[in-house]
Amino acid sequence: MINTVYSKETISDEIHTKWAGKTVHFAKETDSTNEWCKRMSKEGAEHGTLAVAEFQSAGKGRLGRRWTAPEGSSVMMSILLRPEFEPQYASMLTLVMGLSVAQAVKELDVEVSIKWPNDVVVSRKKICGILTEMGLENGKIREVIIGIGINVNLEEIQDDLKDKATSLYLETGKKYDRNRVIGLIMEKFEKNYEKFVKTCDLSLMLDDYNAMLANRSQPVRILDKLNPYEGIAIGIDREGELLVKVSDGAIRKVCSGEVSVRGLYSYV
C-alpha cells in the first residue's frame, strides 16, 4: 500500500542520513522552495536543511520558466548547503544532484538515464528539473540552494510538453510513495556530495555518471551561435564538461549551450 500522506513527519521518517535532509520543513504552499531556503539561510538554517512543498505559487525552472504541478503529483523541494569550497566549483553541484536523482529513480526499478548536464530522463523524456542558485558574501559562498522538481505520480502532461516530459507513473503505471523518493535522493546525494568535496570535481563520480549518460556514444549537435558543430558524445570529464569527438578525431569540451541529442530531443 502506497503511503499517500505527505508531511514533515512522513518525509522525515524516510530520511536515513547524517545531514542531508535531517532537518525537514514542509508547507502545503510556498512561493518557491528555493526562495524559502534563501529566507531560512538568512535566519541561520544549517547545512543540509530541506524545504518541501506540495504547491508552489512561484516555482522556478530553467530560464525563469514557472514550475507548477497538481497536488499529490510531484516532489518539489530544495536543499540548503553551506560549502566551504571556492565559488567556481559550485555549478558542478547541479550534476551531482542530477546523478543522485537518477540513482534514486534506478533504485525504484525504473530504467533511467541522464541527458547532459542534468536532465533525468525515462523513456527518452524528462522527469526532473534542477535549479541551483548561489549566494555570496565577501567573495565566499554564503549558501548554495539546489531546487528539484520531479514528476512522480503526474497523470497527465500538458500538450506542448508531451514529446519532452513524462512522469514515473505515466511510464510504469505505478504510483510511488513520494516520501520514499525524497529519502532515496537524500541518501544518494549525501554520498555523492561527500565524494565531491574531497576533490572539488566529479572525478570520484565519473564512472557512475558516464554509465547513466543518455548521450554517451550518441551523435550530438552543439548549438553554438557562432560555430555550431556535430560529433559523438563520449562522456564527461572531471569538471563536468561534455567531451565530444568531432569528425577529424579531435576531442572538444562543451561547458555551456544547449546540446541536441538525436533520437532523444529535437531542438530546431
UniProtKB/TrEMBL annotation:
Keywords: ATP-binding, Biotin, Ligase, Nucleotide-binding. Residues 9-197 form the BPL/LPL catalytic domain. The keyword Nucleotide-binding applies. Its EC number is 6.3.4.15. GO terms for molecular function: biotin--[biotin carboxyl-carrier protein] ligase activity. InterPro entries: aa-tRNA-synth_II/BPL/LPL, Biotin_CoA_COase_ligase, BPL_C, BPL_LPL_catalytic, Transcriptional_repressor_C. CDD domains: BPL. Coiled coil: none annotated. This is biotin--[biotin carboxyl-carrier protein] ligase. It comes from Blautia intestinihominis.
